[in-house]
Design a protein that fits this description.
Elements: H1 2-11, E1 16-19, E2 25-26, H2 31-42, H3 46-50, E3 66-67, H4 68-79, E4 85-88, H5 103-109, H6 117-132
Parallel strand pairs: 1-4
Antiparallel strand pairs: 2-3
């Protein structure tokens, strides 16, 4: 969601709201990595799946939290425009950092994220511009 909403607002010249002074950390995951994780589970050999319970929860992520201001800076570099930022306080109920623990899916399905933040944002911005015909 942040990829889309921030990119769209920056391209339209609208301000983005940045909470907690941008000191939040999030585990941003590129869509290709998420799809790769799901496919690795869906295409697993039957003998791998037979040893697993019928249901299990797996975290899919990049396993590397990134500061929100660093994330925004990468979008700005990809677009070539500095974002107009509204610095807001921390929202009630929010957390300062999130990170997916991918140890289970990595061990059981050999999942490892491959697309780093910079490359993922460049690809996303290119796609977004073409998609929105900007």
């Amino acid at each position: 969601m942040a990829y889309w909403s921030f990119t769209e607002k920056i391209l339209q010249g609208e301000p983005i709201r940045v909470f907690n002074g941008g000191k939040m950390k999030r585990d941003f995951t590129f869509i290709d990595d998420a799809v790769s994780a799901v496919l690795s589970m869906a295409l697993a050999e039957d003998n791998v799946l037979e040893s697993k319970p019928l249901h299990r929860i797996y975290n899919i992520g990049h396993n590397q939290p990134v500061a929100l201001l660093d994330f925004i800076a990468e979008i700005e570099r990809s677009i070539g425009v500095e974002a107009k930022k509204i610095m807001d306080p921390m929202q009630p109920g929010d957390v300062t950092a999130t990170c997916a623990d991918i140890s289970r899916i990595s061990a059981e399905f050999d999942y490892e994220p491959r697309v780093d933040l910079k490359d993922g944002l460049v690809q996303f911005v290119d796609w977004f511009k073409a998609y929105s015909k900007r």
